[in-house]
Specification:
5 strands, mainly alpha, 56% helix, 233 residues, 10 helices, single chain
């Protein structure tokens, strides 16, 4: 395909399963990390300042449903974003069936990843077992989920701004660590929780093991006697 259209093509090879095992990840996580690493390498080689990937509305809907099932906040409900750093997603405005229809009209064959059919991958279960019944309830289900994701992403952006302002107002650092003023309790609960989640995440270095339970535990400390302690992951 690339040769016929004189498009430069670079192919990378890797052992995703072995990489995932060595780094204690699922195969999906490992493959994703390797994939984006290769994209960045290719971008440097080709002198590209943008990396366009082919996620569509179905991918966004699957991601949002996965995050909802696992437990998430506004940010996770935002699904896949159209722009993230140098990554852009120009096909995020169309459904998979629209892309397949476009290809069929042009008699253009395409490759399907053989793992797409395997139900031992979480995303595939959502793709084949969850989304089809939702589309039976409403044929525009994927579109509506994407609209909800867009709204959640906009609200998450607003929350980040409000949380940043609250941090400037109620949080200070010194040689003993991070201090949070009790005056935070005067704010709306959603601001309280968002700020505490941000502080826990920054202290831990990432948000991987930080959940709503930990935020609630930290919030409860404000209502306990001086000297009480909690151990976090």
């Amino acid at each position: 395909f690339c040769r016929q259209r004189q498009v430069p093509c670079k192919i990378f090879h890797c052992q995703a399963a072995e990489y995932a095992k060595a780094h204690k990840m699922t195969v999906e996580e490992g493959a994703r990390k390797l994939r984006y690493h290769f994209f960045e390498e290719a971008a440097k080689e080709f002198g590209a300042d943008k990396i366009a990937v082919a996620h569509n509305q179905n991918d966004c809907a699957e991601t949002m449903l996965f995050h909802l099932a696992r437990g998430t906040g506004l940010k996770g409900m935002g699904g896949i974003q159209p722009v993230r750093g140098s990554i852009i997603r120009p096909l995020l405005c169309v459904e998979r069936k629209e892309i397949e229809h476009y290809l069929a009209l042009r008699n253009q064959e395409f490759c399907q990843d053989k793992t797409n059919e395997e139900l031992n991958y979480t995303r595939n279960k959502i793709r084949w077992k969850v989304l089809p019944p939702l589309e039976e309830i409403n044929s525009q289900a994927v579109f509506h989920i994407n609209q909800a994701a867009l709204l959640a992403a906009e609200e998450a952006e607003l929350m980040e701004d409000l949380t940043r302002r609250a941090k400037e107002k109620y949080v200070f650092l010194d040689s003993f660590g991070t201090h949070i003023s009790r005056k935070i309790l005067e704010e709306k609960p959603v601001i309280q929780k968002s700020l505490l989640h941000k502080i826990l995440t920054e202290t831990a270095g990432n948000s991987r093991d930080i959940s709503g339970v930990h935020v609630q535990q930290l919030l409860q400390l404000f209502h306990r006697q001086t000297g009480r302690m909690i151990q976090f992951p």
